[in-house]
Design brief:
298 residues; Chitinase A, domain 3; 4-stranded antiparallel β-sheet; two-stranded antiparallel sheet; elongated
Amino acid sequence: MKVLSVFLFACSSATWAQTAPAPAAPPQMPDMPDQTTIAVFDDGVPFTMGDFKKIFAVLPPDNQPLVLRDRKTFVQQWAFMRKLSQMAEKQRLDQESPVRDQLEYSRLMILSQAKLAQALNSMTVDPGEIVKFYDTDKERFKEVRVKAIYVSFGKGEKALTEDRAKAKAAKLLADIRGGVDFVRLVKENSDDETSRAKDGDFATLRRNDNIPDAIRAAVFSLKQGEVTEPVRQPNGFYLLRAEEVSYRPLSQVRDVIFTEMKEQHYSQWLEQTNKDSKVEFTNPAFLGNAAAPPTTGK
């Protein structure tokens, strides 16, 4: 039972955490050349720093610091598992079920994941595709610099009710459209102290910003110089004026487009590969579609 507990120690980060003391500083990978031999197994096979790094790279991230903290125990347990594996192969356990089936399943999963990663990494995007994407979907990259008037409502003694705040915002909008200076109305009426101190300057908004949908819809329908209808938010109404409407240049969004198109190509490849993986089911009963037994009427 003691030997078994040592084996489980190599497989379980929880067990490792119980037995390995926590160091004061994060453990570091030893600075040694890959060809350096760090151990020799009982069959004479050397174990190099490069071998250790390769194994380390495929360990679960949570286990990696634990391995670095107690490298001696890890290598000893690797030798132990290596010995058990050799014994199992000598007895041809790898040819018997369920071990053979588990090995095949693991091989299938690892190879399929490797192929998926390789396919994604190898996807290419022609520069012309990026330009076409930008020109076709340019609205995605619109940005609008806005000024704002904010009319709040609440429950305090001096606070406006929602109806009165809405009426005030509507009156301000009528004044703006009648030619009253927007900045003047900001200074006299806006309850947003931050933007009021900057003559109403609110933000430069982009479509993918984390903003309420109502504000997004209102702002990105504006032309330069236009003002939104009152936009209700939980505690007030906004009037937003488009000071400048522009588009982010291709140079700024090229990487975003490249990544999106690469993922699109990958998804198309994935879908086509799945369609090409044809299967003919020869027994409906397996799928639960067996025909019901015939019935006879009286």
